[in-house]
Write a structure and sequence with these properties.
By secondary structure, this protein is α/β, with parallel strands linked by helices. The protein has 22 helices and 22 strands. The chain has 3 domains: 173 residues, 3-Layer(aba) Sandwich (Rossmann fold); 165 residues, TPP-binding domain (Rossmann fold); 179 residues, Rossmann fold. The chain starts with a strand and ends with a strand.
């Protein structure tokens, strides 16, 4: 069957099972947009290419399937660089297709030319410039394979205009679909080494103060059920990193919650005082470890990761295991069972319970006349007023930390955020992508006023495409996290962080974009507004919560300091052991 390159590209996406893609056309990619008219693939027209990338990420987070975005050359391609870097840091499987100037014009500084392969080499798992229309099915098949196997990540495919243009002879090709993958240099290790897994089981059997340090790799490997089985078999408590929230139920008695810079006291201190850290799909990120030399000083380390580059990168493991978390945990459970009973850890378990009782997450709501609305209260009300399996998407900053702290995540794949790159503007488009992937679920984006202003225009996309996401803006009129640091570490010298509570008018802006807009200023207005928002299912909803601008995120470990010096808050002082 004879096809042109544009038809071959769309047919290749169909063969990969793509149901939806996010994009914005332009000159170099225009020939590919014509065959979309005849394709069953749903195309969602974004208002900015960054939005396309984050929507693809949100879709992938929520569904586990690769997200797909398609943009044009030059500025279209550079506008999607941030989502590519974000997906690389957080191991999100997305495939991005960029148009390129015609082959003969490459290297001549042609109109809208950019060496996007060079630009994105360090922020993609793989990228490739297709030079022949005949290669399109093979390269697309390989792109999806690479994006979704091993450690997931973003793949970029750059396509010159001439090989997809039906009016160009370079575009003619004989259709085929590859029945195999031939990538000699790419063979991810899935199964862990049996001897290393046995060694890990022995360390577990010897430990008195163990902690399971569960990272985002648990979710990527679809290993939440295996993690729960391991925890219950051994009786070992679990901390879930920012990227792993929901991988282990918050309601479970063995759940300690989130560790790290803004984690809770028990999660932070349990790691510091442990004698064994069982790191599963986690990467010893600096936000978790604090000062590396002072992190968990008495702990031996079991480190399981599908990416061998992570083992020993930050902390040298006593037992390194390269492999898929799900596969390794299943084998580890078998070895633990063979070794028999676990040691008596009653003293350690009692200590964990004592810390939880003594140092719970805390904020002072205050109900006096004129008291400001607390952001934590808004999140608790959102949590209690929404379905338990609601998907929560956050931007980056104070609202992200409060969301992770005060929402109760009892289901995997219900928490979506930008962890590694910390991308402001992530929430709105990622929530749209998540809702497209899981249309039957309630999706709340919890955003800050600073983040919201970066990508709010994608609510036009949501309105036009009838994607009824819900957005809660915790509007404190500041770049809140930056202000918090200036207050604590820069002697309250507030440089360039004030945003204004009234400019823009978020309610009117939301309505101008086709959404239902609401403004909430008093605590007694919070629950009714949330109830109204959750009842609306035919258009997006935006609630502008006017929250206390003085509120800060606690607990807190200052950057570069030991996790033993956790700051609990102004009224609780500093913890530490």
């Amino acid at each position: 069957m004879k096809l042109n390159g544009g038809q071959a590209l769309i047919k290749s996406l169909e063969m990969e099972g793509v149901e939806v893609m996010f994009g914005l056309p332009g000159g170099a990619i225009l020939p590919v947009y014509d065959p979309i008219i005849d394709s069953p693939i749903r195309h969602i027209l974004v208002r900015h290419e960054q939005g396309a990338g984050h929507m693809a990420e949100g879709y992938a987070h929520a569904t586990g399937r690769p997200g797909v975005a398609m943009v044009t050359s030059g500025p279209g391609a550079t506008n999607i660089v941030t989502p590519l870097a974000d997906a690389m840091m957080d191991s999100i499987p997305i495939v991005v297709i960029t148009g390129q100037v015609p082959s003969a014009a490459i290297g001549t500084d042609a109109f809208q030319e950019c060496d996007i392969i060079g630009v994105t080499r360090s922020i993609t798992k793989h990228n490739e410039l297709i030079t022949s229309a005949q290669d399109i099915p093979r390269v697309i098949h390989e792109a999806f394979h690479i994006a979704t196997t091993g450690r997931p990540g973003p793949v970029l495919v750059d396509i010159p205009k001439d090989i997809v243009d039906p009016n160009n002879p370079n575009s003619a090709m004989d259709w085929y679909w590859p029945d195999s993958i031939d990538l000699p240099g790419y063979k991810p290790t899935v199964k862990g080494h049996p001897r290393m897994i046995r060694e890990a089981a022995k360390l577990i059997a010897e430990s008195r103060r163990p902690v399971i340090y569960a990272g985002g790799g648990i979710l990527k490997a679809r290993a939440a059920e295996a993690l729960r089985e391991l925890a219950e078999l051994t009786g070992i408590s679990v901390v879930t990193t920012l990227m792993a929230r929901g991988a282990f139920p918050d309601s479970h008695p063995l759940c300690l919650g989130m560790p790290g810079m803004h984690g809770n006291y028990t999660a932070i201190t349990s790691m510091q005082e442990s004698d064994l850290l069982i790191a599963l799909g986690s990467r010893f990120d600096d936000r978790v470890t604090g000062k590396v030399g002072a992190f968990a000083p008495g702990a031996k380390i079991i480190h399981v990761d599908v990416d061998p580059a992570e083992l020993g990168k930050v902390r040298r493991p006593d037992v390194p295991i390269v492999g898929d978390c799900q596969s390794v945990i299943v084998e580890l459970i078998r070895e633990v069972r063979e070794l028999g009973a676990q040691p008596d850890r009653a003293e350690w378990d009692a200590q964990l319970k004592a810390w939880q009782a003594q140092f719970p997450l805390h904020y002072d709501q205050g109900w006096g006349e004129g008291d400001a609305l607390k952001p934590q209260f808004c999140i608790e009300q959102l949590r209690d007023g929404s379905p338990e399996d609601t998907i929560v998407v956050s931007g980056v900053g104070q609202h992200q930390m409060w969301s992770s702290q005060f929402w109760r995540f009892n289901h995997p794949y219900t928490w979506i955020n930008s962890g590694g790159l910390g991308t402001m503007g992530f929430a709105v488009p990622a929530a749209i992508g998540a809702k497209v992937g899981m249309p039957g679920r309630t999706v709340w984006a919890i955003d800050g006023d600073g983040c919201f202003q970066m990508t709010a225009q994608e609510l036009v996309t949501a309105s036009a495409e009838r994607i009824p996401v819900k957005v809660a803006i915790l509007n404190n009129a500041y770049l809140g996290m930056v202000r918090q640091w200036q207050e604590l570490f820069y002697e309250e010298r507030y440089s360039e962080v004030y945003l204004s509570p009234d400019l823009p008018d978020y309610k009117m802006w939301a309505e101008a974009m086709g959404c239902v807009g609401m403004r909430v200023e008093h605590p007694d207005e919070v629950a009714p507004a949330i109830e109204k928002a959750n009842a609306i299912d035919d258009r997006p909803v935006v609630i502008d919560f006017r929250v206390d601008w003085t509120e800060k995120v606690y607990p807190m470990v200052a950057a570069g300091t030991s996790n033993s010096n956790v700051i609990l808050g102004p009224e609780m002082g500093q913890g530490g052991h």
